[in-house]
Design a protein that fits this description.
Strand content: over 45%
Structural class: mainly beta
Number of helices: 1
Strand order of the largest sheet: 3-2-9-8-7-6-5
Order of helices and strands: EEEHEEEEEE
Helix content: under 10%
Largest sheet: 7 strands, mixed
Number of domains: 1
């Protein structure tokens, strides 16, 4: 098990109306505890499921909690990130540069 940082400096959210919104950490999570040094993930590469517990902050997508769940992709040998908030569940593609969230279900 290794501790690794996940850098979410910029990402794109695809909404139901297919409008692309460019969000940055400076704008989305301003004056909150949510910066890249707070994204400490526990990687267990032998297992398929990796959980990163809940992080609470003031300026989330819906002013609530969110959770990132990591799955190991055996085909590409890469982790898959799922972002969950109160009203959003999305797949995160990529890790460090541009991150695309694809909306596939609402809680």
């Amino acid at each position: 098990m290794i501790n690794k940082k996940i850098c979410l400096d910029k990402f794109i959210v695809l909404k139901n109306d297919f409008t692309d919104l460019n969000l940055t950490l400076e704008n989305q999570f301003k004056n909150s505890l949510l910066y890249e040094d707070m994204f400490l993930a526990k990687y267990i590469f032998e297992d398929v499921y990796i959980d990163i517990g809940w992080i609470s902050h003031d300026n989330s997508f819906e002013n609530g909690f969110f959770k990132i769940i990591v799955f190991k992709d055996d085909f590409y040998n890469k982790p898959i990130f799922i972002l969950k908030t109160k009203n959003y569940v999305g797949l995160i593609k990529g890790m460090k540069k541009a991150i695309k969230l694809i909306e596939f279900n609402f809680l």
